[in-house]
Amino acid sequence: MVFLFRHQDFGKNKLWLANKSKIILGIDPGTLVMGYGLILVEGSKASLLEMNVLKLSRHKDHYERLQLIHARVNELIREHKPVSCAIEAPFFGKNVQSMLKLGRAQGVAIATAMQAGVPVTEYSPKKVKQSITGNGNADKEQIWQMLQRILHFNERPDFLDASDALAVAVCHFFQESSVLPDTSKAKGWDKFLQQHPDRIVR
After folding, report:
1. Rounded mean pLDDT of 124-149?
2. 14 within a domain of the structure (yes/no)
């Protein structure tokens, strides 16, 4: 089952929000599963708009997978009209062939966004973790729990690729808006929580 979450009130207020807000698309590229997440930014606050995955494993041909990535990213941009796209940089492993395929998947996603006029920013996995949790070595569960606090929702995805993509979008939101202080030190994150008590779920 594919996890899908949509902001329930967005459709009703789409016209008003068009003038008061912006949307950021986050992508976690993959050759078997591509995660994506969209957040709605209103001033200094962000909320979850949609997150999901594109499952590619049943398609054996690698070039067909690349075409599907292009089509889905293009569809997301047409539907939501994001002002920017954030994408996670590949994690370098030992398998050269896997890295080559992953690099192609990322390149297709980047090229699709750029062709549509959407600027793209790339973030390393460590940078994303640092921005979300204050810890560059945080695990996926820690990232997910912090995303729930930041964006105020309780649902859990079936695939963590979706939450990884959402984390990239939130990371870009923090970097772009300077909402989040330097989290290289624990006190920076503590200060952020003190300044934004509404983002703490008790």
Report:
1. 93
2. no
